[in-house]
Each structure stands twice: as C-alpha cells, then as structure tokens.
Write a structure and sequence with these properties.
Length: 321
C-alpha cells in the first residue's frame, strides 16, 4: 500500500472538522460552545451538517468532543458501548437521571468504559480547551442517542426540536419538522425507572482506568485494557490495547479487521511494506485488515498509544448493579 493510500486513512488533529450543531443541546446555555467530531463512521450526530472523515466500516465508530472550560455535554444514554479517553484537559464525568448519582474526574490518558443504559454527561473543568476521544460500538452506533427529558425540554426553549427519527431541526433558522413527522417523545416516568443510578464507588472501580496505572503494567507487553479477558472485562464490540515505549515491538502485527491507532503522548512511527507515517497526539489512523505494520516511538521521551480492533460482540456491558 502506497503512502498516499495510507494518508487517506489518517485524520490529522489539525484537519479535524468540527460540527457545532451536532446535538439537541447545541443552543442550550452551558452546552452551546461544544464541538463534535466524527472521525470514523457516522457516529450518533443528529445534524446533517456533521462531516464524517472516514466512512469505511470498522464495526465501531471513532469520534471526539472538544469543549472550552465550563462547557458540558448534556445527560444522555446509548444502546451500545461508549468508551472515552482524555486527549487534552481535565474532565468531570457524571451520571444518573439528574446527573447526581455519581461522578469521576479524568486526566490526560485516563479511560472510561461507560456501561450502556445509564444516563451520562461530561464537562471540561480544566483551564483550556479540552478534547476527549470516543469509541462507540457498532457501525450505526446503536441507532442514536436517548436524551434525559429535561434536555429535550430545555432545547425546545432555545429553538431546537428532535424528530422521532432522530433528526435535528432548528426552528430559529426556519427549519420545522416535516409534515406528518412528530417530535421525539420524552421518556415516561416508568421508562426512566429502568435507568440505573449506580454510585461513584460502583462505577469507578470497574470501568475507569488511570493512565499512569496503564503505563506501569505495559512495561513489557501491550496491555489489553478492554476485552473479554482484559483489565476491564467487557465485550463492547471492540478490544482496546495500550502501548508504551517499553511495550512497543519492532515485529510487525496484523489483524483480521481494520485497526485504529490513536496516540495519547509522543510521536509514533507506523511502518508497513511500502511506506511509513508519523502520528502525533490527536491523530487517528485506520490500518487495513491483514496489513502487517509496526508501531514504535519515533522520538525520545514519553510515548503512549491506544489501539482499537473490532470484534463480533454486539453492544457492550449493560449495568447490572
């Protein structure tokens, strides 16, 4: 494969194209400055304005959220897996019907495998623009987002209406629901009671892993962070590995499905028969299935990288209490 062919499968951090109207809370004060990025796959964006960088099916989606300080993403749930790792900044994740059941603060490189079926949100509590990377299970990411009722109601007060088909319409811009199409109904009280309210202690111990802990255990071989027999035992439709300088190998690896490489720290040289490319933090690279490649740090200093490869598992762990 030529370097030109592979460059088409790399999304550089500086080339990311944000969408500022991706979700129903895009006009709600406190959430109206966030930027959504859809890097691989269609994700769960509700806006026709969302740009998709790589459309090749991987069995999962890669996206990102960029937010200035004090900006938050409203409470929502997914039917498939949602995994975040922090690329830049300091973030507070919170969950529960009202967002007060539990919370955890994550720093650069920390990873959070959020169980399906729980309302969750997040906010940038750092001092600068922050970025979190997201992995969503399934090629269609489970058919969209389930919003907490108050999010839908607040959005309507600011001109945004979500259709029952999951499409967003900005009434302030003169866009109304098509004839015969109804707005997305809010969940009933009976439906809301089916969404668990786990505590901080219940969630953090099983679903959060800290960057420096992963660095410590990947000193001889890549650490399997998420997977059936991994540190976080889950089957979300993909495996997540963590590579550092000591665990990087010059021997080539290959997979029976496309692999996605996302550096957290340092610069990484990705080599294959026919060429090589260098990735920096924030870059995302899709390696074709069956292509043998090497991943090694290209400069001295700290280096860490997350690798994602799809599996046949459909959705991810649902909270069971």
């Amino acid at each position: 494969m030529t370097p030109q062919d592979m460059e088409a499968r790399i999304v550089r951090y500086g080339d990311l194209r944000p969408c500022r109207t991706a979700f129903i809370d895009a006009h709600t004060p406190g959430s109206d400055q966030k930027e959504n990025f859809t890097i691989i796959g269609g994700g769960v964006s509700e806006s026709a304005d969302q740009h998709v960088h790589i459309t090749i099916p991987h069995g999962f989606n890669i996206g990102a959220a960029g937010q200035p300080p004090k900006c938050r993403n409203s409470l929502h749930s997914h039917r498939t897996a949602e995994v975040f790792f922090v690329l830049k900044g300091r973030w507070r994740f919170f969950w529960g019907r009202r967002g007060d059941a539990g919370e955890v603060v994550l720093e650069q490189g920390d990873i959070f495998d959020i169980p399906t079926g729980i309302f969750r949100g997040f906010e940038n509590i750092g001092d600068d623009y922050g970025m979190i990377m997201a992995i969503l299970g399934g090629d269609d990411a489970g058919g969209g987002v389930i919003w907490a009722p108050q999010v839908i109601e607040d959005a309507a007060d600011h001109g945004l209406v979500l259709s029952e088909k999951g499409k967003l319409y900005d009434t302030k811009a003169g866009r109304s629901l098509p004839e015969g199409e109804r707005p997305m109904p809010v969940l009933s009280e009976a439906e809301l009671k089916t969404f668990p309210e786990p505590t901080t202690m219940q969630v953090v111990g099983g679903y959060v892993r800290r960057y420096w802990d992963l660095v410590a255990i990947s000193d001889k071989a890549p650490a399997r962070v998420i997977g059936e027999t991994a540190i976080i035992r889950d089957k979300p439709g993909f495996d997540v590995d963590f590579l550092t300088r000591p665990s990087a190998r010059t021997e080539a690896a290959s997979h029976d499905r496309p692999a996605v490489l996302m550096p957290v720290r340092g610069h990484w040289r990705i080599g294959w028969d026919g060429g090589a490319a260098t990735l920096a933090p924030g870059d995302t690279m899709s390696v074709p299935e069956a292509l043998a490649y090497t991943a090694t740090p290209s400069m001295s200093g700290e280096a860490a990288l997350y690798r994602v490869v799809g599996t046949d598992d459909p959705a991810g762990q649902t909270w069971k209490g």
